[in-house]
Amino acid sequence: MKKLxxxxxxxIMATAVLAGCSxxxxxxxxxxxxxxxxxxxxxxxxxxxSSASARPTTTQSSTRPASGMLDCDxxxxxxxxxxxxxxxxxxxxxxxxxxxxTEDETILSVSITETTTTPSQMERRRSDSDAISDRRLxxxxxxxxxxxxxxxxxxxxxxxxxxxxxxxDEYAKYQLDIAFAVAEAVSG
Length: 188
Prior knowledge:
With 188 residues, the chain is an alpha+beta fold. It has one domain. 28% of the residues lie in helices and 20% in strands. It contains 6 helices and 8 strands. The strands form 2 sheets. It has a 6-stranded antiparallel β-sheet, sandwiched between helices. It has a two-stranded antiparallel sheet with strand order 1-5. Strand 2 and strand 3 (98-102) form a beta hairpin. The longest helix is centred in the first third of the chain and has 14 residues, at 5-18. The chain is globular, with a radius of gyration of 15 Å.
């Protein structure tokens, strides 16, 4: 059963993408080579009620980061110190989305996409009904939303973080922390 979890997680992610639940904008998955640190501070993500019509319908495919950029191994090194529980790799190498497991076999998926978000798009995302309010985002001028999974937007990247499994709700509070740490690493 445990060996089937990556396939099940990938199938669920693919279904969500095909159903239009991803906010990925056409782009190539990349990230900066520096794996900057992050604090273990919990996010104060106060969110509005969800609205299915708020997220654009776009497509995503498994992609490889550009040469010299952060791959799944680098993203793992950035995400691991952010959470107060152990995670282990389910996939090796550089194909996005990155798939990891928590101690209880809940799947953690992280995807990084290079994209351009203009100031007006960023402001629109901040005022969306699914927007996450967090002082760290405000300080950086970034935006994030939470509709089925957390997507953090910087001017140059999107970071998607999702937990799948029986205890996914217990881990959901760490999605923004992981996304923020990865976004800091890819933004330099």
